[in-house]
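Hi W., the magnesium ion complex you wanted:
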Amino acid sequence: MSVDLAPYAVTASNSRGRRYPEDPPAYRTEFQRDRDRIIHSAAFRRLVYKTQVFVNHEGDLYRTRLTHSLEVAQIARTVARAIRLNEDLVEAISLAHDLGHTPFGHAGQDALNACMRNFGGFEHNLQSLRVVDRLENSHADFPGLNLTFETREGILKHCSAANARQLGDLGERFLSREQPGLEAQLANIADEIAYNNHDVDDGLRSGLIDLAELAELPIIAEQLEVVQSQHPGIGERREIHEVVRGLIGEFVTDLIDTSCARIELAAPEDLAAIRLQPRPLIGFSKPRAEAMTTLKQYLREHLYRHPRVSRMTEQAKGIVSKLFDVYTTNYERLPDEYANRARKGHDTHGSGGGARVVADYIAGMTDRFALQAHEAL
Ligand code: MG
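Structure:
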């Protein structure tokens, strides 16, 4: 596939490689190998039982972290192919980007972050990296999945200066304010396109938001008008699907057009030139970026803060904090492997060392596992 790639796309030849050097794969690209390791990981299988917005047991039709990650990958691959970026790499980044997510979505992450505030905090983005670098534990020759630098770079979307200083080469760009490769930039925006649109779909399906009210946003009104004039009386479910389908198309097309125009203007010769750009080259036009922001705000106010979602959020926070308190004061209640690691962490780094292992254990839980563990206490 590399013959068709743009000169500034990431390839095996300009890659910074793996932390533990390996022979190149026989029939795959380096980035297909990354993707395959991610799909075969335990953390990836757990995504199916982790909340996106709705807790996993609320209904079988809502997105989970797994289907979310697949939607991100599919959007990112379309754009990558259209603008000749490395499709295998964006797929690997997309599938791995949420591996560090706690049970119960953002509520779980906020609760765990609060529990860890005296020990460096908890951040799901950084945790995704920790999963692929250290916590996955199935290869004979190295810890973690030993992914390429560029897949790891894409997973680490943002990072505080303090954390960046501890991350070595991967943290450098946050300190020197360089850009990541275009594939990383793309996976990040594909994530945004995916969740905003599928949250509209899930929000409408749940009845927590309403299409007529949502149509106060011009971008939704535009799509709804097209659907209603072309397909009058198709029924609400198909109408919603057509609106969301149209929206995704709208954002993806704008992303491709705008990014191409910016790349043409900047005329980067190679990957190094991409990194030195003053700002990302992958992005929306101003009107579409604004529409995305407005949509995000609407969802925050009307869906994520809806009383039914907030009730779940409060419960989830209670469960996570309770589990954290119990495990940090009684390591023996953890499974043997974690208990041993927690004691070792405690001996070497004090209570923060033990707390980090407890956070790893809780973050790895699925929604239903966390509920069961909480009940068992
Ligand atoms: Mg995501």
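The two ends are 53 Å apart (CA to CA).

W.
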